[in-house]
Design a protein that fits this description.
- This protein is α+β, with helices and mostly antiparallel strands and 336 residues long.
- It folds into two domains: 137 residues, Rossmann fold; 167 residues, RecF/RecN/SMC, N-terminal domain (Glutathione S-transferase Yfyf (Class Pi), Chain A, domain 2).
- It has ten helices and 13 strands.
- The strands form three sheets. Strands 2-1-4-5-6-7 form a six-stranded antiparallel β-sheet.
- The longest helix is centred in the middle third of the chain and has 37 residues.
- The chain is globular.
- The mean pLDDT is 94.
Amino acid sequence: MIIKSIKLTNFRNHSSYLLECEDETSLILGKNGCGKTSVLEAIYILTRGKSFRATDSEIIKRGTDYYRIELKYQNGDSIITTYDGKTKTFLSVDKKSARLPKKYRYPVILFLPSDLNLISHSPGRRRDYFDTFFSGLDETYAVNLSKYKKALRQRNEILKNEQITPSALFSWNLLLARLGTAIHNSRNDFIREVNSRLPATYHSIAKNDDEVQIVYQSEAKNLTEDKYLSHLEQNFQKDAYLGHTTFGIHRDEYLFEFNHKPANGSASRGETRSIILALKFIEAKLIEETLNQKPLILLDDVFSELDDSRRTCLVENFKHHQVIITSVERFDNNHS
């Protein structure tokens, strides 16, 4: 679907804002702090169902008691969301719902400046990145991950009880073992597919023969549900003492290797940017192949972080998508 316009009311620092979108590339120009990223955030909410950076209560413009976003598509469809400080609702064709209807969920490639530092970020930040990536490809993965996180929170709450017994954790252990092994297997499959494409995609950007791959590390490697369950049970004393779950896929790690060495430290600034660009291109390609849809591309001020050759590569790879770009400066015709 091609977005025609997005209208914001009381959204962050925007009392009222309307963006009329182009079919191909729309450029939002403005100084830092003027609310450019907020426009992308609003689009993300009405294509993915939630913000990529905040809770709803943090989004409402100061001094007001609600926000409203309206997204219109070229085919005549429209979707509206409002949040009144307590309840968030989505309205489409006079039908209200608490969640974004599946019909209006649309694949998005979001490219933030912080993504360019993914290789040196914390393990948790990398897990979040790949969870978002994989959830966009597979709804079952997204559901399993959501259930796992809820079960993990419940188990951790129980562990804070001083009179905790192993039996109190049994049902949560079973659930975490089932979901944890399923999530691990999915992550393993996805990373294998990404790695099968990464070298060629990277070489097309960097124009060299350096080797790059992602190493997926997990405590759940080669574990059945029963063995996963055994690990949780064996860690009871340790978990009870620390007050949280010390084993599981929530501790997984994704390490980038460059010429068989850790990329964080061995790859240059330009090389790490080429790796992340390659990852974004692969994400878009996998979405198109898996969902048979061209994802919407949201680029938040990343052009200023790239040199001319990588800007050109970015534009060339996404030239057949609808792209919405924020920037503090206008680029020449080759880049816009």
